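Following up on my earlier message about guanosine-5'-diphosphate. Here are the inputs again, as you asked, copied directly from the submission form:
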Amino acid sequence: MRAISVPGTCVIGLQWGDEAKGKIVDLLTKGRRYVVRYQGGANAGHTVVVGDEVYKLSLLPSGVLTPGVTCMITGGVVLNPAKVLDEVDELVSRGITLDGDSLKISDRTHVILPWHFAEDRVLDSSTGGESIGTTQRGIGPCYRDKVARSHAIRLGDMYRPDFRDRIHHITAEKNRVLAAMVADGEFEPLDANAIHSQYAEFAERLQPFVADTTELLLTSLECGEQVLFEGAQGSLLDVDHGTYPYVTSSNSSGVGISNGSGVPGKYLDRVLGVVKAYSTRVGGGPFPTELEDDTGQYLRDRGNEYGTVTRRPRRCGWLDAVAIRYTARLGGVDALCVMLMDVLSGLDEIAICTAYEIDGRRTTAFPSHVDDLRRVKPIYETVSGWREEIDHITSYDELPAAAKGYLDRISDLIGCPVDVVSVGPGREQTIVVNESLAKC
Ligand code: GDP
Ligand code: IMO
Ligand code: MG
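Thanks, got it. Here's what our run produced:
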């Protein structure tokens, strides 16, 4: 297939994550100066399939498999040092070159420390209602410390003379707090000396990659170079604009690109919104179009809907055009990439949620409060399905008429053109609908 390239592009998920952003980023990487992860952390699991090789990336940008591109992790990311080093080691062992030229990590990233995992476990089970079902990667507690400031450590702090003292001070504070939070008999105090020596080793190994990514990015964009921004999670998990509190702790919608990367909006040319051809969600929280029946299981089986990070079964349901129209508008989305279309083959009919009913009223506005979202009744429109497999199809014209009809309807309801249709995990299983997106 032909390589895809557009200038200054952002790739964001428009649902609850796992929309197959990794596949789209990989396809758009060629010719970029930088590919940038700017929020989230190792809660993300982005899959890229190259021939027979499957790569699961948590912290490294999905551009990492394209030679000659520099990957970047900017200050809005919360960095698990052990995890990023493991990912580097694994990729190097698989023949990928990763050195201080091809990977840059911001000294402004906040570091995940052992107490963040302990706090994540305790907090998630104490919401007083349905649990959030976090990935248990310490994400929320690390972002909380970042905003609270007094107990945070940034990557750059690990190279300062007072690093040891700061670890000792914060460990003592955290031990006091955790002793109160953890059930009696289950609390094991954290050992500051052990943490310091482990993290000093991480710091040494990470040193070649540490950079002021803001300066590099701004200089690059001022010179007109092409940069690709890779969102993690999905817009409905955005801490400010998603289904709060059943969200992650960063701005995972389009609004997070500038604050996470330090790049002003004027450089963000084109936003691609990635959606699955249906809906999935992992963890707790309302999901109006969820299917807890055979059709839901059909989608789970055909889409292999089990979490990339935690292997939890993903909840599955029909496409929710109310929610996606909201997140597409929020993100300033220019075009859609509709993924996993092949999963829908074999269904006689496909439903699309076109509006919600709440208290007897019909609305196409996405509720701001999670309790209202729980109460909505989805209003469905049903379109014809198609029986044939489509995973080998490479052009839009060859798609069954019903599949084209479904894509047209999605585009109408969301108010954006469909530029890419994906019919399988492989690079070649991609239909570029908008030819201006494709360059030889
Ligand atoms: P991300 O977090 O948004 O990058 O998405 P994930 O990698 O967590 O989940 C997407 C899954 O769908 C991965 O296993 C991909 O390999 C797979 N995938 C991507 N595109 C397609 C497609 O068009 N069809 C099918 N069947 N699988 C796909
Ligand atoms: P990618 O980038 C799907 C979900 C978790 C949980 C909630 C909060 O692969 O699309 P957290 O650990 O972030 O505090 O968990 O967010 N979640 C994701 N769901 N894909 C992801 O990332 C996710 N990252 C977090 O399941 O419901
Ligand atoms: Mg994922």
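One observation from looking it over: The radius of gyration is 22 Å. Hope that helps, and feel free to reply on this thread.
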